[in-house]
Amino acid sequence: MSTTQRVDPVAALARVRGYVAGRTATGGQTAIKLSSNELAFGPLPSVERALTAAIGDVNRYPLPRAEDLQASLAAVLDVAVDEVAVGAGSSGLLWQLIAAFVEPGDRIVLHTPNFEAYPIAAGLASAPTIDVPLVDCTSDVDRLIDAVDDHTKLVVLTNPHNPTGTAVGAREIGHLVDAVADRALVLLDEAYIEFAGGPGADHWWRRHPNVVVLRTFSKAYGLAALRVGYALADPAVVSALGLTAPPFTVSRLASAAAEASLAASAELAERVESVCSERDRVTNRLRALGVGVPESAANFVFLPAADIPDTFVDDLERAGVLVRPIGSLGVRVTVGTVPENDRFLQECATILGDGAR
């Protein structure tokens, strides 16, 4: 009689906590979902047309590295084609970057709290994270620099920051890059950069080839379900990202939608302006209710735990509004449509007491 020996997964998996997505209504309930940083609008008309046209080719494989979108991005961003890598959202490119450069025991320095994908990717690589606290809900580049040692392989600056929405300027970024990029990789995660006034002209990786910029079509472009993003980096880094990418990782539908989005810059700018206007309105009203909301440069706002009751998230959920708790630190709320934001603010006034200050 033979016995079958169980094959266990890699040891690192036991230390990894799975990704927890934003709350979604269940059991047939309807609710306003402000718990994931999605755009509240559907695709632009030109993007819908591009998707419809691309459906006819879904029986064919896309280009292996989305070379068509890569070329379009290079032209729009005024960079060389070999300075652009396309992947399955910025999070997919994060996995590729860590697979290419981070070995067991290497350290990753980043602010905490942060995007949940970072500790997961680090854990799978058996790379400990060095968690650096924010200062007044904002990135402090000097603290990141001070945390770098001889074992550091990667330093992450998320700008605008997730989950607080705060941002630092080019001077702070340049200070970090100059201090660190000759010693370790510097990852500039710019998933929300369009809401902060758009990408700057600084090609950081040309001065320091260890700098990698990540951006996505999931946020301002509203293509979250299609999973497409890009990296800007030195050609050697782009080449390494290509070697760690699964074949055909970006679908033809995603590439077509992203290319159409790049061509619709005026319409995109209008949508971004609308979101930013609503973000400011929501911020001002929450501050009038006594909540110390930090200045956001993203498509969400952050409510510090000290200014809201412990039952805030559950109270909102019972009222049909879903938001995202960030541990014991506070709550992140995505900017929705005007009616959705009105409903959220109405419920906040009920929970917090409408004693405007």
Concise account of the structure shown:
The chain is an alpha/beta fold. The protein is built from twelve helices and twelve strands. Helix 1 packs antiparallel against helix 9.
Biggest sheet features: 7 strands, mixed
Q: What is the H/E string?
A: EHHEHEHEHEHEHEEHHHEHEEEH
CATH homologous superfamily annotation of the largest domain: Type I PLP-dependent aspartate aminotransferase-like (Major domain)
**Poorly predicted runs of 5 or more residues:** none
Give the amount of beta strand, in percent: 15-25%
Instruction: Give the rounded overall mean pLDDT.
Output: 91
**Second rung of CATH, namely the architecture of the largest domain:** 3-Layer(aba) Sandwich
Major sheet: order of its strands? Answer: 2-8-7-6-5-3-4
Overall helicity: 25-40%
- Tally of individual domains: 2
| Number of DSSP helical runs | 12
Give the class-level CATH name of the largest domain.
Alpha Beta
- Enter the CATH topology name of the largest domain: Aspartate Aminotransferase, domain 2
Can you walk through the features of this model?
- The chain is of the alpha/beta class.
- Helix content is 37%, strand content 15%.
- The chain is built from 12 helices and 12 strands.
- Strands 2-8-7-6-5-3-4 form a 7-stranded mixed β-sheet, with helices on both faces.
- β11 and β12 form a beta hairpin.
- α3 crosses α8 and α10 packs parallel to α12.
- The longest helix has 24 residues.
- The protein is globular and about 55 Å long.
